[in-house]
Structure formats: structure tokens, C-alpha cells
Amino acid sequence: MSKPIVEAREIHKHFGHLHVLKGVDLEVAERELVFVIGPSGSGKSTLLRCLNRLEEPSSGSVVVDGIDMLDPRTDINHARQRIGMVFQSFNLYPHMTALGNVTLALRKVAGKSRGEADVLGMAALERVGLADRAGHTPGQLSGGQQQRVAIARAIALEPRVMLFDEPTSALDPELVGSVLEVMRDLRQSGMTMIVVSHEMGFARNAADRVVFMDDGLIVEQGPPAAIFENPTQERTRAFIGQIQRH
Amino acid sequence: MIESFFNPEIIAAIWPIVLAGLLNTVLLSLIVVPLGLLGGLILALLATVHHPLVRWPLMAWVDFFRAFPPLVLLVLLFAGLPFAGLELGGFACVAIAFFLNTGAYYGEILRAGIDSVPAGQVEAGRSTGLSRLQAMTYIVLPQAVRNVLPDLMSNTLEVVKLTSLGSVVAVPELLFQARQAQSLTYNATPIVLAAIIYFLLLWPLVRLLSRLENRALAGRR
Ligand SMILES: Nc1ncnc2c1ncn2[C@@H]1O[C@H](COP(=O)(O)OP(=O)(O)OP(=O)(O)O)[C@@H](O)[C@H]1O
Ligand SMILES: [Mg+2]
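Output (C-alpha cells, whole complex):
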């Protein structure tokens, strides 16, 4: 394994009395695709959100691409440009066009002129196959197209790591493929990716590693084949059995 | 009857006075509406700070100025402040009273608008590196304003109507000027004229508001 680009150590997260993450260690190597699976409420989203500090960990350390994310001296807005995030519900800005969505941070955070931002934004939309929809607003796009615009919005900033939180679970089944296709392309281009998802087929042929979380802890991890075919932990086995029955 | 309520000769004689009043009403509106919006925006932005030291004073402020009758507030400023050695003109008193009173209303409307924007919108923006202020400016506020546009319009309508309160502190707006003309002519015609002008001024706004409200209803369906 090459040197890790994401290093999370002993992450704890409390919401009031609720202890949601109970000491999670996660190392991700450059160009690695890590899949995170686990039952609802096990803390998968919270873990992802701790990595870019959308959620403040109660304790522990997070280093991404050499930047200490939890150091108060770190310029968090600058650091976040390097960590793209894709949400289950897309969260596109409904009052802007697809291109407007993609170029907002290019202009306001990366400091590009409108002209430069438009060129980069169009290139990003091109990568997700939606250059011809640049002038459409989210309301005029299908769910699959919206999610691809959301991916374009993140990759336009040339992040070092991409976080995906159930990117396909809000989509009609026939639209899932187009989003997975884009994720596969990203992987081929060498993007480091952490993906929370239950798309087992995709995990099987694209993931380097599958991490199983339960009750705020990583219970077991390994190559997809090992986790899906021969889990060593009883809890993993029960969970895999459950989702494969669906 | 026509003689004393809509007398053409009197109209011909007093229309410059009433017209000056109309201009002042428009001018006053163009000052107090932005001022109220500004006050409201400040209050709504403060409301996004969830610190008890901000929250409680803010709530007290908004409640106080919404509960306080604007006419009483105006008279208090105009007739009360001189006793504290501070003599402001009628115009300044109207501006301050409106900033305080209508600001509180605009503030509540804008706050509701901000609350109506899903948290995921800000998170998406912050995840791309936008600061809190940038996310508010470019992502939340445009959507917030759009979501409460009918309420903002309807409050603006009320504010324009309320400018007639200026007559109480001798601001020469439409109602005040009409009363002046009336006392010069011993005739109701100037007041009737002012009433018609108020209606003509506000009616397009009312129509626009109805259309907005209908569209909002249709959008919700
Ligand atoms: N902001 C919050 N405030 C309070 N509790 C929260 C908050 N966010 C998450 N939780 C709680 O933390 C626990 C873990 O939530 P999390 O969203 O990380 O789970 P998850 O593994 O992503 O689940 P799912 O598969 O349903 O998305 C849950 O019990 C949830 O209710
Ligand atoms: Mg989740």
C-alpha cells in the first residue's frame, strides 16, 4: 500500500448522549476505492462527514493529503476544495443552471474569473456526459442527471479525494447505471474514493476494499470477495445475507 | 354633493399641493422600504447565530417592536425624544420608527425564508469550500427570498400604506398635504382625491401580489 492520503485515527463522535462513532480508524491509500457498508444508523454518513469536517469529531485526528483537518489553524474552506462530496439527495442549487452549480465554487473559492470558470465547468460537465445540459436548471434534469451534475460540481475543483454518501439510493433503478458509469470513469482516472453504498455489484468489480461498520465501529474489512463470500465476523455475515436477499 | 366631494374647480386649484404630497409619499416609501428590508436582513442573519447571547435579546427585540403600535412608536420618537434633548425632524423619526417596526416584520419573514432552505444546500456549498457567509449570500438568500416573495410583497404593501402615519408628525406626504388643502378649501375634495391616488398607487401592487400568490399555490400543487 502506498502512503495514505486519508488518515483518520480514533474518531469519536457524540451527538448529545448518543455515542455514534466509537473510535474509528480509517486509512485510505492514494487511488484506492474504499466501500463502506453497514446497517442504518451505524455511523457511515457521520464518518464521511467527519472527514471533511461537515461534522466536528468529538475527538481523534483526521489528516487528508497532509493537511490536519482538525487543527484550528487550518483554513478549512481551502482544505475542503481537495475533498469532493456527493450527497444522497444531490443538493444541487435549484436557482442556478447546471453550469452555475459547477462554477460557483470555482469562482468564489478557487478565485477563477467567470470565463475561466465556465471553461473548467464545461469540461467537468463533459466528463459526466452532460455538456449539452449546461443551461438546464436542476428541476429540468432527471435524478440521474442531477447526481452527475453534483459529481461534476465536486470534480471541477480537482479534489484529491471524493466522498460519496449513498449516491444512487435516491434514484430510480433505471437511472443508477449512468451514475455508476461516471464513478467507474473517475476510478479509472485514478481518483481516490470513499463510497458509502449498498451497490454490491459495483463494489465487487470496482472496490479495492470493503469496510463493514456496525454500531459506530469498523467490524471487519478486506477485499470485496473476502467480505462478501467469507466474512469472519458473525455480524458481517448476517448483514451481507440480509442485503443479498433483496 | 359633487360640489363638496369632487369639485373640479377645487381639484384644479389644489392639485399641485396634492401632487407634492404624492411625490413625498413615493420618496418616503423608497426610503423606508429599503431601510426596513435592511433591518430585517440584519435580524434574520442574526437569527442564524444559535448562541443564547444572541438569541434571547434578538427575540425580545423582535417581539417588542412587533407588539408596539407603530403610531405610538412614532409619536414617542417625535414628541418624547426632545425631552431627552434630542430633537429629530419628522422625516428622521418616520425613518427610525419604520426601521424598527417594519424591520422586525421583514426580519420574521426573511427568517422563515432562510429556514425553508434545506440544510443540505448549505452543506453542499460548504463541502466545496464556500464560507458560511458565501453560502448564505449565494445559495440560501436567493432561495429564501424567492420562497417568501409573496409575504415580502404583502408586507411592503403595508409599509407603503403606513407611510400615511407621517402626517401625524408633519411630514408633507400625501395624506398630510391633502389635509392641508382641505383646511384651505373647507371642502372634502382633496381627501377624496388623495384616497383615489392611494388606490391607484397600491392597486397594481395588490394585483401583482395576487398573481404571485396564485403562482405560489399552483407551484405547491
Ligand atoms: N446531527 C445529528 N444529531 C443527532 N443525531 C444524529 C445526527 N446525525 C446523525 N445522528 C445519529 O447518529 C447515528 C448515525 O447516523 P448516520 O447518519 O451516520 O448513520 P448511517 O450509517 O449513515 O445510516 P443510514 O444508512 O441510515 O444513512 C444515528 O443514530 C443518527 O440518528
Ligand atoms: Mg447515511
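The CA atoms of residues 113 and 147 of chain B lie 6 Å apart.
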